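Subject: Protein record for review, amino acid sequence with backbone structure tokens
Category: Structural biology, sequence-to-fold work with a learned token vocabulary.
Format: Residues in single-letter code; tokens as whole numbers, each standing for a residue.
Body of memo: The sequence and its backbone structure tokens, given next.
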Amino acid sequence: MAILKTDVLQNHYQFCVEKAAELGYINLIIQGGLICEEGIETFDVDGNLQFRFSPPSIRVTTEHWEFSAEMHLLEKSIPAARGAFVWVEQVSDYLCLATAGAPIKMQPFRDMLTESNQLPINHPKEIWYDEVKVGRVMSRAMLNRANTFMHHAQHKIGRDKIKSYQRALWWFRHGANIEIESPLLAYTCFFNSLEILLQNEKSNSSRIKPKGNKKTKTQFTHIFGQDIGKVLFQVCYGELGGESLVAIRNDIDHGKIVELGEGMLRVLKNIATLKALIVDLALYLIDSHESMGGWLSIRVLEDGAEGLVILSLEEANQLGLKKSGSLPMQ
């Protein structure tokens, strides 16, 4: 078992910061559910190069791909490099939101690290149940969507709430990255994200710590409308014979659901609903709609439907292409 020592973490971080300041850019390996098929560059309002994404994408596991990228600094300096690494994290979070939960992990200078500043390798466990094998093609539209979400969040969410909003997105992306290897931990991450977003929705005019979430029906009906709001409240916090989202989270926390037990099926059955609910809440907070008439996450996926890569005809039929991301309301 690899134990991450403090000095290893410090060496890793210091090497990455110094290397970025020396080169003027952060060399990245992007791993997860994105596929890069052609070179893409993005620029800021002054015409400075920000990101360069480079194919080819290499498949490293059944569900994950990786490709290279560069994030360019405004200047070659240590402070600029430190700030850039924080921004890389935020870009990753908003890319995950823009793809409705695709796993995304950016690894800086992976191929340049020496043994003294490498982090221990985690060996994922083998999973025995069937998964959907989908990757999303990196496109300029996807990057623009992520950038728009980031811009809206900074301007539409109050200063007292923006940090907790960022924490919610981090939990969401963290869950997406470990969903295949550890569905139970991923479910807990997703529920953390949901609870933080619900706190964000509550009034906090005094700009103090967000008030506790009372799990009221009012929140859901205000966001999703009267009819859908009532259904979603029941799905999330209602009495559904132990199948509500919060009941499953509590059973995980109390050890009633374990990885090799039959309770795992409850997690796998409901985790997609939980993810879609998080995406819709996160989007609502930056792009409010009086009457959404459905799930915003559906439109996020359908907007980039050309970016879905289906690996077999059978899987395409199972997914139903046009219904990707949609959830039947009962």
